[in-house]
Amino acid sequence: MFMPVVSAQEMQSLDRLAVSLGCKEENFIQEVGKQVSLIVLDRLEKYSLLKSVLLLVGKGNKGADAFSTGACLLERGVKVRALSVFPLDACSVMNRLFYRRFVEQGGKVEYFKESMDWVYEEGLILDGLLGTGFQGKVEGDLAIVIGLALRSKRKVISLDIPSGIDGTTGETKGLAIVADETIALGMIKIGCFLRDGWNYVGKLSVVDFGLPKEVRNKAQVLARVPKVDFLASLLPKLVRNRHKYQAGYVVGLSGSKQFRGAPKLAGMAAFRAGAGIVRVFYHQEIGEIPHELIAQPFSLKSWQEEMNRAGSLFIGPGLGKTDKVFRFLKTKKGFLEIPMVFDADAIQEDVEYPPHAILTPHRGEVLRLFKLKKDSQEEDLLARAQKWVQHTNCILVLKGAPTFIFIKDHPPIVIPHGDPGMAKAGTGDVLTGVLGALLAQKIAPPEAAMLGVYIHALAGEMASSSKTSYSVIASDLIECLPLAMKFATSIANFGPNLA
Fold first, then answer.
1. 312, 300, 257: which is closest to 433 by C-alpha?
2. What pLDDT is attached to residue 120?
3. Contacts 24+ apart (CB under 8 A), 137-145
């Protein structure tokens, strides 16, 4: 169901443990070559590239992985060329072994200073320069090669983590490979998600190179990434004779004169995510509303009546930071028996949120929630978030790129999907509506949080694909929610091979 995320140091420790138990590095690297070559072949076809691959090879075992992959590709008729940055006698034992196998298979290895024409050739680059043990700044010949790779217009796939990125901290202190895709070996490294890492890794996939189960079980897991087929399996089941209240009744408290669009975005997103009826209460007039949406001024009597029928509640989008709102959050307890989503101005310090409520802050809002005046190191903020959910038993969705989800008694969950085009006002309101709809359809809050963030991110990717990342707006995500739901449904019905 989940893929573990570990530090670079932990992965190295697991590798050493496996070898101490009798496993052979040679067999691991051979398996990496087989698995990665299959992915490379798929990408060559997907991107309609010439069957030509350039290996950028360093001196360590990541270079050996590249040579192993290259040998497997040669067996399948792919034109493979290897560019080595270091002389052979400076390379690791495994690197030299798989160098020889690559050459025996007909591969050609060149020293990078002898040839610069590769920058302008077509095909795909496989980055095997620096492994997860790298720390510091790329310098010398490595910096030259990475700089040339950045100038190239080729698609780039990085092994384990893009060269130049610290596998644990995500830092880069100089040049680093910007990958279109990163193939994690064994387990995903936490540096993919921290600091600069997410800007460099591209799409993420994972290959299993044969690490024994007893070794994997000893891993100190820092986070987890849910598999797509597991997320798709969480979709609410449909019955043919359901009515709109069974489909899910979502109530919202949202909107103000200044932010009239927020409740409409949240409400329509709830409909597109499956809700059967959506009603929004507002304290201030919000203007014309979509035909499908019910909206009315807030009154305590009407509110309490609807709370008895509602399947879920969202509070916050567009409310504004007023004393009236804060007093309501502090004193009203009648809505605590149903699943709830808090967003935007409903996320305040010193509010006692009900257990299992989902909060969806962005970076600034979570600082307010934790009473922090300035941003802190990512590791510190993530630790604070985990401590907060342990204390409150709420679910915290820390929106960002990527999004982290915190649930009591579980490692943080990372949803590595989405697009830069989603960094627009109103997209958070869309997420609130999606979460409200899933909760109203009786999905448990932890599962609703994971599925909702994934569906939202997928809609963002689809919207950006057609509109470009520059031009996407929040309502585009709502238009793409049906496509995202359809895609997830196809995975749930026919399996993960469609992902």
1. 312
2. 78
3. 137/173, 137/174, 138/163, 138/164, 138/173, 138/174, 138/175, 138/176, 139/174, 141/85, 141/86, 141/112, 141/113, 142/58, 142/85, 143/174, 143/175, 144/112, 145/56, 145/83, 145/85, 145/112
What does the angle CA 446 – CA 4 – CA 39 come to, to the nearest 5 degrees? Answer: 115
| Count of alpha carbons within 13 angstroms of residue 340, beta-carbon side | 22
| Lowest mean per-residue pLDDT among 33-37, 94-98, 371-375 | 371-375
- pLDDT recorded at residue 450: 98
Q: Is the pTM of this model over 0.90?
A: yes
Residue 461 identity: E
Tokens 């990958």 label which residue? 179
What are all long-range contacts of 467-472, with beta carbons under 8 Å and residues at least 24 apart? 467/421, 468/421, 469/419, 469/420, 469/421, 470/421, 471/421, 472/419, 472/421, 472/422, 472/424
Least confident among 106-115, 191-200, 214-223, 277-286: 106-115
Q: What is the pLDDT of residues 244-260, one digit of tens each?
A: 988 999 999 999 999 99
Is 404 within 8 Å of 412 (Cβ atoms)? yes
Q: What share of the chain is helix, strand, coil (3-state, %, to 5)?
A: 45, 15, 40
One-letter amino acid of 333:
K
Closest Cα to residue 162, out of 142, 182, 145, 137? 182
Which stretches of 184-226 are DSSP H helices? 197-200, 213-216
Domains of the chain from N-terminus onward: 2-221 (3.40.50.10260), 232-498 (3.40.1190.20)
How far is it, in rounded angstroms, from Cα 249 to Cα 313? 9
pLDDT, the chain, mean: 93
Distances, alpha carbon 70 to alpha carbons 40, 108, 132, 180, 252, in Å: 10, 10, 20, 19, 56
Summarize pLDDT for 108-154 with one digit per residue, the tens: 999 987 667 788 788 899 999 999 889 989 999 999 999 999 999 89
- CB-hemisphere CA count at 13 Å for 199? 10
Number of neighbours of residue 158 by Cβ within 10 angstroms: 29
- Compute φ and ψ for 55, nearest 5 degrees: -90, 125
In 3D, which of 205, 196, 204, 195 has the Cα closest to residue 177? 196
Query: Helices (H), strands (E): how many in the chain?
Result: 17, 19
